[in-house]
Amino acid sequence: MANIKSQKKRIITNEKSRMRNRAVKSELKTATRHVKDAVAAGNGAEAFAYGVAACRLLDKAATKGVIHKNQAANRKSGIMALVNTVATAEDKAAYVKPAVKEQKTGSKKAEAKAARQAAMKAASEEKAVRREAHMKAVAAAEQRKAEEAAKAAAEAAAEAEEAAE
């Protein structure tokens, strides 16, 4: 294990990128297998759709640096050559692009911050309700004490009058 702090950080980042690269490469192999299976089944439309999807994944992998751009180009060429053995012009014309996935906006950090702020606001509102109830109880207690003090004062005055008589 490294002793230098920057080297420890480098080990962690290398492991993260290795895991990401492994996942992307596995995804590429799966996409290629889908294409080969569709070609083996003789389904031209499905093979073309899988081929286009695989080419897109290869381009993404090349831009992220997982594979070299020339390797991506070579693999795309091989996949499309394989697809062209079964795909007809009608299959290519009938191809419809898949719907674009809705992109998430913001980050996990921003979502967490918004959730914390919402929780704090809810807690603050709950505290305000409890404070209001407490203030009402305190006011009622003070009123009762004042009434009892007035009653005691009236009784003391009445006793004083009786004693004076």
SS element count, helices: 5
Give the averaged pLDDT, no decimals. Answer: 93
What pattern of helices and strands is seen along the backbone?
HHHHH
Q: Return the CATH architecture of the largest domain.
A: Up-down Bundle
Please name the CATH topology of the largest domain: Methane Monooxygenase Hydroxylase, Chain G, domain 1
- Beta-strand residue percentage: under 5%
Q: CATH homologous superfamily name of the largest domain?
A: Ribosomal protein S20
Overall radius of gyration: 38 Å
Q: Describe it for me?
A:
There is one protein chain. This protein is mostly helical. The protein folds into 2 domains: 8-98, Methane Monooxygenase Hydroxylase, Chain G, domain 1 (Up-down Bundle), CATH 1.20.58.110; 109-165. Helices cover 82% and strands 0% of the residues. Helix 1 runs antiparallel to helix 2 and helix 2 (44-64) runs antiparallel to helix 3.
What's the short story on this structure?
With 165 residues, the protein is mostly helical. It is built from five helices and no strands.
